[in-house]
């Protein structure tokens, strides 16, 4: 009887260990770039802009990938050129009759924000993909190497010199602004 209890306990411990190990190894760790999100980052390869795009609910794998990839590219474009218009309406009123305890108050707040981005990107590549196993959300990571971007602009024959310089200055300024903002936080 004691031998039977020991064998049963032994198999119970082994079963729990297998379940625990299987449970731990089945959930892949979220990549750092998913948590960090879009922005300009300095890595060991140099400075680059990264865009993270995601999508959920699309069953067609190629459409899902293309959508996430395009959203990642759009995140990089937002760094260079984003037009934002904002409108906020705030209305408050209070009406008091003869009895101050019988007042009527109204309040209405509306906020509208419209964002538009338009940019021609060159040298942007999709460098990684990842999916959250539990929700199915699919992520794409786009990268635009700053030095490669500058080299491409310098070789572009169809752009006037003044335009090339302005674009390079904006790219450098955008990266500096991101670094300054990151340093504040």
Beta-strand fraction estimate: 25-35%
Average pLDDT level: 79
Number of helical segments? Answer: 5
Overall body shape: extended
Q: Which strand order do you get reading across the main beta sheet?
A: 1-2-6-5
Main sheet characteristics = 4 strands, antiparallel
Q: Portion of residues in helices?
A: 40-55%
Q: Measure the end-to-end span.
A: 65 Å
Can you tell me about this structure?
By secondary structure, the chain is an alpha+beta fold. The chain has a domain at 35-81 and 119-184. Helix content is 45%, strand content 33%. It has 5 helices and 6 strands; from the N terminus they run H-H-E-E-H-E-E-E-E-H-H. The strands form 2 sheets. Strands 1-2-6-5 form a 4-stranded antiparallel β-sheet. A two-stranded antiparallel ribbon has the order 3-4. A hairpin with a 6-residue loop joins strand 3 (82-96) and strand 4. Helix 4 (146-155) packs antiparallel against helix 5. The longest helix is centred in the N-terminal third of the chain and has 24 residues, at 2-25. The termini are far apart. Mean pLDDT is 79; it is low at 8-13.
List the helices and strands and how they pair.
Layout (H helix, E strand, L loop, with lengths): L1 H24 L6 H5 L2 E5 L2 E10 L5 H20 L1 E15 L6 E15 L6 E8 L6 E8 H10 L5 H24 L1
Antiparallel strand pairs: 1-2, 2-6, 3-4, 5-6
Write a concise synopsis of the structure shown.
By secondary structure, this protein is of the alpha+beta class. It has helices at residues 2-25, 32-36, 61-80, 146-155, 161-184, and strands at 39-43, 46-55, 82-96, 103-117, 124-131, 138-145. The radius of gyration is 27 Å and the shape is extended.
């Amino acid at each position: 009887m004691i031998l039977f209890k020991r064998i049963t306990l032994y198999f119970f411990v082994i079963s729990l260990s297998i379940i625990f190990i299987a449970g731990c190894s089945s959930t892949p760790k979220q990549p750092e770039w998913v948590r960090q999100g879009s922005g300009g980052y300095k890595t060991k390869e140099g400075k680059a802009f990264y865009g993270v795009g995601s999508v959920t609910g699309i069953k067609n794998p190629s459409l899902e990938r293309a959508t996430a990839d395009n959203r990642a590219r759009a995140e990089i474009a937002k760094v260079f050129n984003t037009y934002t218009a904002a409108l906020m309406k705030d209305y408050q009123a209070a009406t008091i009759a003869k009895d101050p305890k019988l007042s009527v108050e109204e309040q209405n707040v509306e906020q509208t924000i419209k964002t538009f981005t338009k940019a021609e990107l060159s040298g942007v590549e999709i460098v990684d993909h990842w999916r959250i196993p539990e929700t199915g959300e699919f992520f794409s990571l786009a990268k635009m190497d700053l030095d490669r971007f500058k080299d491409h602009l310098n070789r572009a024959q169809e752009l006037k010199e003044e335009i090339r310089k302005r674009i390079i200055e904006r790219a450098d300024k955008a990266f500096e602004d991101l670094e300054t903002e990151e340093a504040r936080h």
